[in-house]
Amino acid sequence: MADRRLRLDQPRVEGRGLLPHFDPEAFGNWTERVARFLGTGRYLIMQTIAIIIWVLVNTLPGLPHFDPYTFTFLTLILSLQAAYAAPLILLAQNRQDDRDRVNLDADRDEAQQAKADLEYLAREMAAVRMAVGEVATRDFLRSELARLEPDRKPRKKAAREVHSDTTAVITAEHAPEAG
Q1: Which of 91, 113, 135, 172 is close enough to 31 for a disulfide, judged by CB 3.0 to 4.6 Å?
Q2: Long-range pairs for 38-42 at CB < 8 Å and ≥24 separation?
Q3: Domain that residue 141 falls in
Q4: Which segments of the chain does DSSP mark as H helices, in order?
Q5: pLDDT digits (tens, 9 = 90+) for 80-97
Q6: How many domains does the chain have?
């Protein structure tokens, strides 16, 4: 009898009971398939045809009537079908709600990550703009060159004179001597 004691330091081992064990995921998939089928046009057409045949067989004279009391058996069958269909549809809806909740949580996490990434990129762009603000821009260089332009013209003229003098000296040195 000591072996049957509950031990809190070990996981509980489930024994075989009288009730059958089933995989909840497999049962959930089956309920979704049934609920999906019950919501199709094919099912509605099949059920309509079955009810029409039931009514015709039980109302036409000369045929054996297996539901002679104002369709009591048909009412029982449809009630049983509704009694099983409603919980199956609810189970399928609950599973879909669970999936939607998980997807919503994942979407929320993804949106938060995207927002964090966007804020990081905005901070980085602001840092780049501040760094570029300290670098000389094209307009700044043009204004500085325009400011230096009056000072540059006399130098340019002097540079031309030096260049022409140097060219004259070089050509004179290399010119053939007349003799």
Answers
A1: 91
A2: 38/85, 38/88, 38/89, 39/89
A3: 137-165
A4: 24-38, 41-59, 72-133, 138-174
A5: 999 988 888 888 888 889
A6: 2
